[in-house]
């Protein structure tokens, strides 16, 4: 899930909402592309949370945060 002060389609390119970690891998890269704004509005945050599942473990917190600066 996504949270934070950054808005999809305004502060960063829309993400699909689905993210796949390849079988046999412990991690994967999620690319976030910031969008240019006409007026600077300061730093916005994007928080990505990975939900728990019976199929895998999430640790330590399952959360990553990105700061997007205008």
Question: What do these coordinates show?
Answer:
The chain is mostly beta strands and 70 residues long. Helix content is 0%, strand content 23%. The protein contains no helices and three strands. It has strands at 2-3, 43-49, 63-69. It is elongated, with a radius of gyration of 14 Å. The mean pLDDT is 85.
Distinctive features:
70 residues; 3 strands; mainly beta; three-stranded antiparallel β-sheet
Taking Cα atoms only, what radius of gyration do you get, to the nearest Å?
14 Å
Could you say which structural class the secondary elements and strand pairing correspond to? Answer: mainly beta
The secondary-structure element order is EEE
Tertiary shape = elongated
Count of alpha and pi helical runs: 0
Write the layout of secondary structure elements.
Blueprint: E1 2-3, E2 43-49, E3 63-69
Antiparallel strand pairs: 1-2, 2-3
Can you describe this structure in just a few lines?
With 70 residues, this protein is an all-beta fold. The protein is built from no helices and three strands. The protein is elongated and about 45 Å long.
């Amino acid at each position: 899930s996504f949270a934070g002060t950054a808005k999809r389609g305004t502060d960063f390119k829309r993400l699909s909402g689905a993210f796949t970690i390849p079988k046999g891998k412990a991690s994967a890269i999620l690319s976030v592309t910031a969008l240019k704004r006409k007026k600077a509005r300061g730093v916005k945050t994007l928080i990505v949370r990975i939900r728990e599942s019976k199929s895998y473990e999430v640790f330590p917190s399952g959360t990553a945060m990105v700061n997007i600066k205008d």
